[in-house]
Structure formats: C-alpha cells, structure tokens
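Aim 2 progress update. The chain analyzed this quarter is reproduced below.
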Amino acid sequence: MTVVSMLEKDGVSDENFRIIAGIALNYAGISLSEKKKNLVYSRISRRVRQTGFGCFDEYCAFLMSEAGAAEQQHLVSALTTNVTSFYREKHHFVCLERLLRQQLYARLGRGEELRIWSAACSSGEEAYSIAMTVMKCLSTIPNLKAKILATDIDSDVLRQARLGSYASAEAAALFEDGMLTSCRLEGNRIVMSEKIRDMIRFRHLNLLEPWPFSSCFHAIFCRNVAIYFDRETQDRLWGSLSERIVPGGELYLGHSERIAHPERFGMESMGYNAYRKVSSGGRRS
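Predicted structure tokens:
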C-alpha cells in the first residue's frame, strides 16, 4: 500500500487531532474545533508525505518526541494559509496613502521617523507594497527616515521575502499601478530595488510570545491572522497592538476580521476593517 493510500485509509484519528490541535494552540494560538478535522487532513497530509512518514500515527508520534520539536513550526506553517499578493485589499493602501499625505507629511518633513509594521508579512508582498506606497507619497521629502518592520511566524516564507524576487505574473498589480520604478525586470521575475529593500527589516516573530521591541508605529497591518484565534486571544492581540500605535495611527485587519467594541482599546472604526487610535488608552486583556 502506498503512503498516499495509507493516509487516505487511516485519516486523522481523534487522538491525532487532539495532538495537532494542542500543538497549534500552544505554539501559535490557533484554535481548531472538531469541525476542522477535514481541514487538518487536507493541510497536513502533504507535510506527512514530505517528511516520509507512512501515516498520521507515525507523524504525531514524531511531533511529540524530543526530535520533533522543530517540526512543530512546519506543522503550524502547513495549517495556516500564506495567500498574499501585491496591494491585496487595496482599500487599506488607500487609507495608508491618506494617512501619509494628510496626517504625517509635515511631521515627517520635520524629521520624525516613520514606522510601519507588517505583522504577518508572509512572503513579503505586503511589506514591499507598504514600502512602495511610502515612496510614492513621500518621495519629495529630503532625507526621509522610514522603517518598516515585517514579521512572520514562518521562517520559510521569510527567506523568500528577504530575496525580494517574484514571478512577473504574481506582480501584475505593479504594472497596473505604475510602480515598476521601485523594481526591475530580470528575465521573468520582478526584483525589488535596493532602496525599497533597505527600508524593510524582516524578522521571525510569534505574535503570542513577548515582542522583542518597544517601538510604536504610525500604522500596523495585521491581516488574516486573528481568524485563527479564539475570542480571548484576539482581544489580547488587539490590546497589545493598540499599545504599539501612536495616537492618530491606524490598524488594518483582514477582510473577515473585526474588533468588537474598539473603544475598549482606545480605537475607533474607520470602516473597511480599519481602525484609528484615538487616545493613549488601550489595555492588555
């Protein structure tokens, strides 16, 4: 019997699901209900085959062993989707443009440093889209100081992001927006310019662990992350993010994410899953 047929025959037992769900919750705060068992099978079966195990029993036994600790990150990466693209959910970049031009331009022109955080940057398209938006809006400011922090829990996608190289078909939005001044064509690939890449620092970060920085940001993109968390974990995240946004700064979430009663965290809704920090309030739940 082949590995594929064995996986199809055995599926994910209740015990295997309990192990996988426990690791996902403890490692990354991902909450998996019993209804997600089919999702777990579809996302993890490929990883089981890649690692050479014949069934979920063998794979889960390895996960629980001392040697399997490093595999837990690969498990989490397989469970979460890394679907991204340049200027995805474009309305947030419209919000960012307005923030840069109308609220921050004068302050940045006087030497204030711009700080933006892409909190789940995946393979980097979001962070590079932010950097290109900054250059588009602020290119006339001499000696502009701008830093973009781009973090993700998945070390594999971070390696891709640091390269700043994408198939030209994936970068169609750059042609549409006339942003090819920020990158160059090399064969069938788009490569980000040095100026754009120098603006970004890619770092590994688990959002549920202590954050090794104390910076506050003018804007935070934290999109399509909280959908994996339970309500209590989401509220803790909203509070922590709010504490890292300067008054008047903005937070952008994914299309299916909402903050219930944002005033609890010193924020107000701007529509389109966007929120503005209106006070120095905000709390950790």
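The domain at 3-79 is CATH 1.10.155.10 (Chemotaxis Receptor Methyltransferase Cher; domain 1). Residues 1-6 have pLDDT under 50 and may be disordered. These observations will guide the mutagenesis experiments scheduled for the next reporting period.
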